[in-house]
Amino acid sequence: MTYYQKLEQHTKKLSRIHHLSAICSWDQAAKMPEGGNTARSEAMAELALIHHELSTAAHLAEWFEKAEAESLSAEQKISLKEMKRQWKKDNVLPAELVEQKSLTGSKCEHAWRSQRKENNWHEFSQNLEKVVQLAREEAQIRADATGLSRYNAMLDLYEPGMTCEKIDEIFGQVKTWLPSLIQEVQAQQSHDEVLTPKGPFPAEQQKTLSLDIMSKLGFDFSHGRLDVSTHPFCGGVPTDVRITTRYDEDDFTSALMGVIHETGHARYEQGLPEQWLDFPVGQARSMGIHESQSLFFEMQLSRSKPFIEILAPLAREVFSRNNDKSLSTENMVLFSTRVKPGYIRVDADEVTYPAHIILRYEIERDLIEGKIEVADIPELWDKKMTEYLGLSTKGNFTDGCMQDIHWTDGSFGYFPSYTLGAMYAAQFMAAMRREMNVDNLIRERNLQPIFNWLDRHIWKKASFLSTEDILREATGETLNPDYFKEHLVNRYLES
Amino acid sequence: MTYYQKLEQHTKKLSRIHHLSAICSWDQAAKMPEGGNTARSEAMAELALIHHELSTAAHLAEWFEKAEAESLSAEQKISLKEMKRQWKKDNVLPAELVEQKSLTGSKCEHAWRSQRKENNWHEFSQNLEKVVQLAREEAQIRADATGLSRYNAMLDLYEPGMTCEKIDEIFGQVKTWLPSLIQEVQAQQSHDEVLTPKGPFPAEQQKTLSLDIMSKLGFDFSHGRLDVSTHPFCGGVPTDVRITTRYDEDDFTSALMGVIHETGHARYEQGLPEQWLDFPVGQARSMGIHESQSLFFEMQLSRSKPFIEILAPLAREVFSRNNDKSLSTENMVLFSTRVKPGYIRVDADEVTYPAHIILRYEIERDLIEGKIEVADIPELWDKKMTEYLGLSTKGNFTDGCMQDIHWTDGSFGYFPSYTLGAMYAAQFMAAMRREMNVDNLIRERNLQPIFNWLDRHIWKKASFLSTEDILREATGETLNPDYFKEHLVNRYLES
Ligand SMILES: [Zn+2]
Ligand SMILES: [Zn+2]
User: Fold this and answer.
1) Which of A262, A269, A362, A364 is catalytic?
2) ipTM score assigned to the predicted complex
3) Where along the chain is Zn(2+) bound (chains A, B) (predicted)?
């Protein structure tokens, strides 16, 4: 057996352990009764330990060295490179730091649940300082290992190849036009009369609608399921993708748009190249590309007028509301593209969302690089919210810097993926429109050419190409935020 | 750390791996979409391998030896003994034999699916011969390791301490009265006019009824769930018990009685002593005792007249059939206690079921001991079916010796557990009746004292006592099949 083959065997083993861990995590969120949690968490930790021991085995360094000297096909070379990238990521942090991060993050998040309600920044910030301290240690170790700056080393975990220099430039551009665009859109929309659909919308009927839409969007039910959980997610494994939603009987659009979003994630997973699924090279390229697929489905596709022409009648039918004017296509278009600055990121619309991300990016970048401290966050938050969205969060920590919990598990570097994803999605759609009349295809209920394009240019590419090369191959250029601006202007100003 | 503590830590690790395997097995049967199966099976096999490697580690022999010399509490001594029993069971078979068994069994079962339909004994028997050959090898190895006879060594896996000498005596007694009892019951029942409830009984309503009964029977939904699968089972782990059923819209009683049966298994699991759950001593004593709990719930409790007085009105209500005479208490009592010899074991009633088990026991015992060969089975099957139940299976392999698939996975020695369980259940009920008026408690809807008795005498005993000692402690004597006879006579002849 060659060393490359040994590494493949080893990686397959890790992939299988990950499979069981993914299914049990899904179960924990979607099916497990409360009383099962303690034993389950212990069992999951044991499996994580087994995974860790295998993935950090001492002999692997030699295997990689020897495999690199072997004669390999072009695909195998890329696969080996991705296995090695994964191995390095898994091996660079000392075990104590991983444990410290996990404990400190859990403690911070647990306390946050009541501290947020009490608007108690003072106590929360003490925990967050420890989280940031550990995140800086992690960033330093990753920086030393990669030769990148501290924050860039963190970014590289979620969007390999991306740097804060590039993001600064891109987000810097967005900042020049976004605040005024938001104001213009609001001024224009102030003349619209929009009806808010009024519940109750029974969960069972929402589920029927969700399953129908998933199937129209090509979700493969022989390789996946839809279930319910408190926090919607896309989990499982590519051969068995588990997406979840939560039905709000007062507002069916939240579950519906959520399901469409997760279906985008799911189709990417289901579309990955079958023969490489056990290997890093066969997995999703990055968090940004993942989000580009969910946002392509949710924003580019499903909030478009031609698609709402499909959605609205289905909703009227499933809820037996043929004469409900709030469910007319015209009103649903207005309702689905309503723009309104708000404090809470996860409730934000497509136009204001990037403002939330830019704010978080600028703060976390400077936190990790040591240019600011935790104590500086509230003032910065208030200043940026005011500047980007015209909303002050002075003294309001609950709806300000205490609303998100992403940082407590040390995921610094993750936030930009959301807006990078939105930009990739707009750029993909623009390229697709050059090749086919997307709106007509939707009107003809012929979505297959759209999915085929994504499958060919993104899903089947998995991690064989870098993010930049995926963009270049699919759209003819690297990331160009103009497409995103163009999309927003077209959808929100010229309708 | 003492060696006993090391063994506890090791055993906990095995228990946690088992936890994930149990949840993923449940998922595979109850939730997994078809397309997930290949990757899932590979992942499960990987976890089984990890479990096997851990449980057969070379250093364990020394650990056990040293732990046995340590100063231990009485409970720890029993726990150590049970850990060792488990370790020996896991270690005695050579890896190739385990693999051979698995491959040969899968092949035999897979071919059986079509061979059974085609009544093709000739080809099936060739596969079965290989299965029996491997089972004999296994039995010989286990016999050498335990000093028991070959079949007794297999029995010991499912009902530790049980021997074919004891079973021969007990089943021998049953054979003296069962065939004539069956005839008497049939003669007496021939005068009854019984209505068969006619469907459709919608699955949703059956589910509502099932959940209601489970909760009346004390199933703890914070530590378990009810779902649907093709073959009903009780799975999961004691802190999170997953039972399943299958709804037949033509016959609600099959799912209902199935759910009650699995609830009996589940309550045993949920009632095991919390602080010992990770260790063999904290687990169910035996398959026979496990079945005694499911049959206590299903047969002793739920087919009793006072319980049907609860069930029947609930059924009428949930199906909105207040005037359906087939759902009257009187008719439900007759319907639930109908006795009719048939070919198929899994469809058999309480009275004829033991005949099916005795037949299988006598054949598998002689097969394993080498007194008969596979080629002898059809003739023996026909002879015994005719003798015990008055039904000939000559030339009818499909409904004769090809109906069951238990033997293909090498589970020789398992069949007696079913009837031993029925006997234990009857003996437990008789003892309970000496302490409390069970029928009155049921009529008063006060089942708690019944559950408390089972909890105290069986569930909390886990594997701290042998099966014999559980019986002795709970009922004052060892297995006495007279209670089972008495139960059948009381229920089926003197009503
Ligand atoms: Zn997403
Ligand atoms: Zn059972």
Assistant:
1) A262
2) 0.93
3) 261, 265, 291
